[in-house]
Amino acid sequence: MRTVPVGVSARHIHLSPEDLVLLFGECAALTEFKPLSQPGQYAANETVEVIGPKGSFPKVRILGPVRRRTQLEVSRTDAFALGVNPPVRESGNIAGSAGIVIKGPAGEVKIEEGVIVAARHIHFHTNDAERYGITDKQRLSVRLHGERGLVLDQVIARVSPDYALDMHIDTDEANAAGAKTGDQAEIIG
Amino acid sequence: MRTVPVGVSARHIHLSPEDLVLLFGECAALTEFKPLSQPGQYAANETVEVIGPKGSFPKVRILGPVRRRTQLEVSRTDAFALGVNPPVRESGNIAGSAGIVIKGPAGEVKIEEGVIVAARHIHFHTNDAERYGITDKQRLSVRLHGERGLVLDQVIARVSPDYALDMHIDTDEANAAGAKTGDQAEIIG
User: According to the UniProt entry, where is the signal peptide (chains A, B) (predicted)?
Assistant: First the structure.
């Protein structure tokens, strides 16, 4: 059986170095709150407010380290609450995605694109991918068990020697499945 | 192909006649805002506030007509926001479910049970069930198509001459699938 641990991603944001300075001031640096499943990635102590045309979230966790471009990842439920209409995208693919206002202690930034609903995906270490017979960018079907059991199609495989085995789904997907971080899912096709 | 239209249920409440009076006053009556897919059921113009230990929703739509017992149906996302922990249940099966405070223009009611996350289900008219070879209470697997395509297991068949063919899922399930009311789903097992 090809099992994979589940990691549920709540709404979060990645900041560019430029936006970090605009939001938190000169010489600002992210500080680690706790490590994430992927090596080198962490949840920061710092949070920002995100403000849409219809609603806002006062404390959105920043994930570090900084990235080349600012990216806000929300669930579809969050998107309705904010009043924005982000596309379902792979991380990093933000061209033409939705915009938002971001507010930090030192200032405000309006991004024209960068808001996405993250496409569900599995991080495979190269060794795990080989063991499971899976190639980078392959689309998989994955079963989550339980009273709200379901099979997620269109799960994107991402293979790298820098990754640790983990399936990332958002809170809508987790809640629809009655799943939580640490559950075991099963790749069925 | 055994197709079925999708109906997405947002959070809503059913009231008992007693609670309707407590919340809206003597001689209160629900008035129809728009009909629902099931014959005789309607969304009312009237709304209530529901207040949990952690959060509240100011305007929760009442569905009519009144029922024997008051029942609040929320998504798991809503439940986290309210700070309650309702079980996944079939409508009407509320023994031991979660409680909540309900506020109307004429008063407040605290229910000890009645808050549930609705178990996904399909209403079949007896003729549809016969045509599709499906029996009451059968568990089905249903495919939703699209970029967030998935297969919902544990979908409960409910068969009655009083029903119209419609699959009811909540907003978490709809958002996880990228589905909306009026989409066509496919019963695959």
Answer: none
How does pLDDT run across A135-181, given as a tens digit for each residue? Answer: 999 999 999 998 899 999 999 999 999 999 999 999 999 999 999 99
Residue A76, φ and ψ in degrees, nearest 5: -65, -40
Tell me whether B55 touches chain A (CB under 8 Å): no
Nearest to B100 by CA among B59, B66, B49, B65: B49
Query: Terminus-to-terminus CA distance in chain A, angstroms?
Result: 11
Question: Any chain B CB within 8 A of the CB of A9?
Answer: no
Q: Which residues of A touch B148 (CB under 8 A)?
A: 88, 120, 154
CB contact under 8 A, B154 and A153: no
Count how many residues are written for chain B: 189
**Contact status of B15 with chain A (Cβ, < 8 Å):** no
Residue B72 near residue B16 (C-beta atoms within 8 A): no
Residue with tokens 């080198």, as numbered in its chain = A40
Q: Where are the alpha helices (DSSP H) in B50-170?
A: 76-82, 126-132
| Cα B111 from Cα B99, distance rounded (Å) | 5
Q: How do residues B89-128 score in pLDDT, each as one tens digit? A: 999 999 999 999 999 999 999 999 999 999 999 999 999 9
The answer to whether the beta carbons of residues B148 and B174 sit under 8 Å apart is: no
Name A39's Cβ contacts closer than 8 Å, sequence gap at least 6: A162, A163, A164
Domain ranges of chain A: 10-118, 120-187
ipTM of predicted complex = 0.91
Amino acid at B89: R
Q: What is the spatial distance between Cα A86 and Cα B33, in angstroms, rounded to a whole number?
A: 31
Q: Say if the Cβ atoms of B151 and A154 lie within 8 Å.
A: no
Tell whether pTM > 0.90: yes
Estimate to the nearest angstrom the gap between the alpha carbon of A80 and the chain centroid.
Answer: 17
